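Render this sequence as a predicted structure.
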Amino acid sequence: MSVLLLRLSAPMQAWGIQSRFGVRDSTREPSKSGVIGLLAASQGRSRDAAIGDLVALRMGVRVDREGTLLRDYHTAQDVYRARGGIKPTELSTRYYLGDACFLVGLEGEASLLTALHGTLQDPVWSLFLGRRAFPPGEPVWLADGLRQGDLLKTLSTYPWLKGKPTTFPLVRMVLEDSNGNEVRSDLPLSFALRRYAPRRMVNEYRRVDIQESIGER
């Protein structure tokens, strides 16, 4: 199998999976729906385009810098109601991650990952990290981000993106696993209809032995 690596680093990111009404949440690491949306944007796929090939990719996340979960309070005026009319004031609370950095790995067929590696370098549409207001702080594309091997080994050996984690050599990883004990409803079935299915994963600290960071190359 092949693995495509992405660098998701920015002053602000947000990866919501259960936002309702006036509260927009964020998980502590990238959601699969958000990453698939980013990949689709790089290829210029429309919201109603098929995404089955992207959904089939197995995803893993290495947390190089946890970031800080922050809360923002919003007040909007003259908001259009879904049933018609205008609401004078709408209050909302929005959560996001400040100063986080993640190495995301996608495992699948080489041909698809090679195509994605190319479009991430020169995306059709602008890329953002969960919300349109949050562009990447560094390129998502990594020159050596297309690799041979399995997902866990690749994430466990690639150089650090941001120095070394404070928990070194234990690093938090979130890996898709059909037998995982954590379930999240962030597997997109349709972006046009906003339909999602659950997926299982493991979220745990793993021992690694990485000797260098990208900045030390």
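Summary. The longest strand covers residues 86-108. The chain has a mean pLDDT of 90.
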